[in-house]
């Protein structure tokens, strides 16, 4: 397979070919995601929820993100790999942001980083880009700011926040970001943003009129089951299937059906 690069993605947008992106946090799942033909693998700080069981994305550390990212990098031969800079690893100042991004690139050998926010973190993004590290932006609902928002509801429904979001997207393109994630905003606004910039806009809960889509892997596989926002399409019900498979194993052990004659040495 030919590796997907940041240039591939920008070319895809120009051609009108949609970009598929999913999260992964470990080797085994990343191998499947990559093999299935997903263009971009996001090592998201949603690992904080999905892998570690925290309520928010805030607790996960840079070291933990690097551990997840290095596992994914060892698995993926084709997908472009982007890694979230976790909360607290880039907000203090641009130098800290660059140091964190360099650690991710060197220690995990991923291909790019993602940061949440617009003009507040402009200088940090510029620093990282100046070091030759590709940056994906993330606007709209930014879960690292959950305590500022107070809820995970749709963002930018008001005119003022929508205008700010469009300005931020244009700024991210101008300074050199290669793509932007738009999370949970009205579809009409996402469409307007995608039409206002030439870099790919990857939506999650942002409607169909963007350049690509991203979902959290464990959500779309139906492994998580308390979480059911409108934007989430479940392709499997692995929570139920796994519960039943594991239940059968428990039964087989109890009734001494496992292992059988062929399964022993
Ligand atoms: O961490 C994550 O999974 C993300 C996606 C929801 C875009 O940032
Ligand atoms: Na994230």
From TrEMBL:
Reaction(s) catalysed by this chain's protein: (6R)-5,10-methylene-5,6,7,8-tetrahydrofolate + 3-methyl-2-oxobutanoate + H2O = 2-dehydropantoate + (6S)-5,6,7,8-tetrahydrofolate
Gene3D superfamilies assigned: Phosphoenolpyruvate-binding domains
One of the protein's GO biological processes: pantothenate biosynthetic process
Keywords: Cytoplasm, Magnesium, Metal-binding, Methyltransferase, Pantothenate biosynthesis, Transferase
Assembly behavior: Homodecamer; pentamer of dimers.
GO cellular component, one term: cytoplasm
SUPFAM superfamilies: Phosphoenolpyruvate/pyruvate domain
Any Pfam family matching the protein: Pantoate_transf
CDD domains to which the protein is assigned, alphabetical: KPHMT-like (cd06557)
Cofactor-binding details, from the entry: Binds 1 Mg(2+) ion per subunit.
Family, per entry: Belongs to the PanB family.
Chief subcellular location: cytoplasm
Localization (cell): Cytoplasm
Protein name: 3-methyl-2-oxobutanoate hydroxymethyltransferase
Active site: 183
Entries under NCBIfam families matching the protein: panB, PRK00311.1
Residues the record lists as binding 3-methyl-2-oxobutanoate: 45-46, 84, 114
Metabolic or biological pathway, per its Swiss-Prot or TrEMBL entry: Cofactor biosynthesis; (R)-pantothenate biosynthesis; (R)-pantoate from 3-methyl-2-oxobutanoate: step 1/2
Record function comment: Catalyzes the reversible reaction in which hydroxymethyl group from 5,10-methylenetetrahydrofolate is transferred onto alpha-ketoisovalerate to form ketopantoate.
Amino acids binding Mg(2+): 45, 84, 116
GO MF assignments: 3-methyl-2-oxobutanoate hydroxymethyltransferase activity; magnesium ion binding; methyltransferase activity
Gene: panB
EC number(s) reported in the record: 2.1.2.11
Cofactor(s), by name: Mg(2+)
Lineage: Bacteria, Pseudomonadati, Bacteroidota, Flavobacteriia, Flavobacteriales
